[in-house]
């Protein structure tokens, strides 16, 4: 429940982020806070702070107009905070996965994308685009232990590939031996390789000239 305090010296309001919104992830909590701060005008950004799971807005009593505007902006953002798309670093922390796993499972479709987002890096002209993820889908992955299943599947595929290398090498060697044996057999059956009876007589009579 948001709390408002006005003691004549400072205006204060606090919002507590639910575990449904944060997934118990400190990275997700910080990401939500940064999203809330981005909704404020530059002059009010520093007035918003994060204390654990509490988002705190504190401003001097003399800035009541700015405080009310900032409070309205945060309230509006908080209304849909549980549906805020999850960004890459957040999903890695929530699911306990590495960047390589995220890329692999995203590429093969096991980790569904909810679309892409483009942002401009602070102080730079460069923009980056990345995939975001639906919180409901991420919750489902957690509930059914999908990550553990995917890791088992990947380990099995990797083991099969390792076993396949020597097997293919063995097949190659076997095929080569078969080809060599066949070649030797063909050479043995060639007339030139078979001793000819009466060769000397043919040669003496000049029949091969």
TrEMBL record:
Chain segments carrying region Disordered: 166-195
Superkingdom, natural source: Bacteria
Protein name as it appears in the record: Uncharacterized protein
């Amino acid at each position: 429940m948001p709390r408002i305090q006005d003691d004549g010296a400072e205006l204060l309001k606090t919002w507590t982020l639910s575990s449904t919104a944060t997934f118990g992830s400190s990275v997700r909590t910080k990401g939500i806070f940064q999203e809330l701060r981005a909704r404020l005008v530059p002059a009010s950004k520093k007035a918003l702070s994060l204390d654990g799971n509490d988002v705190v807005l504190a401003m001097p009593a003399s800035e009541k107009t700015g405080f009310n505007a900032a409070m309205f902006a945060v309230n509006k953002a908080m209304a849909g905070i549980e549906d805020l798309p999850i960004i890459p670093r957040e999903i890695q922390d929530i699911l306990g996965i590495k960047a390589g796993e995220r890329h692999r499972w995203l590429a093969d479709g096991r980790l569904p994308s909810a679309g892409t987002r483009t942002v401009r890096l602070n102080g730079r002209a460069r923009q980056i685009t990345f995939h975001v993820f639906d919180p409901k889908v991420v919750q489902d992955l957690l509930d059914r232990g999908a990550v553990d299943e995917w890791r088992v599947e990947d380990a099995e595929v990797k083991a099969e590939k390792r076993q396949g290398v020597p097997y293919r090498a063995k097949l190659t060697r076997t095929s080569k031996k078969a080809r060599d044996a066949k070649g030797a057999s063909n050479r043995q059956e060639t007339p030139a390789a078979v001793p000819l009876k009466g060769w000397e007589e043919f040669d003496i009579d000049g029949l091969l000239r």
